[in-house]
Amino acid sequence: MKPFFLAKRFVAGVQLDDAIKKSKELQEKGLAVTLDHLGEDVTDASIAVKATQQYIKILERLAKKKLKVNIAVKLSQIGLAIEEELTYNNLEAILKAAKKYKLIVEIDMEGSQYTSDTVDAYLFFIKKYPSTIIAIQAYLHQAYDDLKKIAKKKGRVRIVKGAYKEPTTIAFQNKKAVDKNYILLLEYALKHCPFTFIATHDEKIITHALEFAKKNSIKTSKCSFQMLLGIRRPLQEQLVKDGHACRIYVPYGEEWAAYFSRRVRERKENFWFAVKSIFSR
Ligand code: FDA
Which protein residue has the closest C-alpha to ligand 1 atom 20? Predict the structure, then answer.
């Protein structure tokens, strides 16, 4: 199936070749890339194993092409909805392959039913695979405690606001509260983690991060901005022009629909934005 034409701005395509082509285009503009082979909530062990094998093949392909891009993995795609042992075996197989090819794995954070198990799996492997990165969602009340545990073990983080619908008992619901927590997490991560991805399109937070890093003499090699494919492209390019690192998260694969609907839920304009983008660059 070809990507639904409206989702095309946000999804590189269906095949790895589409994602590789897009990665090269972005790298030519000075942007770094993280590839996400879309898929989540797998409930059949054989499919989780197949997804793991696919990730290993992707890593092999990237190494063969000498493409320095990170890969993003959702643990529910490789067994978290089924069994811990299966997940750990699959995750270790991916981390081992990434280490062999000197590539980096970023672990996405999913809905709250998976949060603590994802953090535990990350902490279990961090010593052996120290370049691995984990996403932390600022809308979750538990995020600060999770971040402290991760920082204590010298973990690397991607700070995001959070994209899933979560109840008031566990998550901040309004932008002001989420942004406040984001800043708290960001400052803590910049000070205490060996590496931080500032994953947001929010210019206020980006400006704050730059000022905070400057004021606290945080080396630019210790952090990078990170944005989603197709969102705020001029800002992505401007950051690079200004000498800052910016990495683009590039999703691809047949399961583009759930991803696209999250982007539309965040911003209804994305639907019209996508329609307009058919006629613009
Ligand atoms: P916010 O939503 O406050 O938006 C700030 C401004 O950015 C808006 O005013 C608008 O101008 C622009 N903007 C934001 N979203 C837009 C959109 N969809 N379309 C157009 N413009 C938009 N989530 C998660 O739960 N787990 C994860 O692992 C990840 N991983 C991840 C990686 C990367 C690289 C990014 C950038 C984001 C994620 N996310 C994520 C998604 C994240 O949680 C969040 O849903 C989105 O980034 C939107 O939030 P902002 O930080 O951009 O701020």
Answer: 231
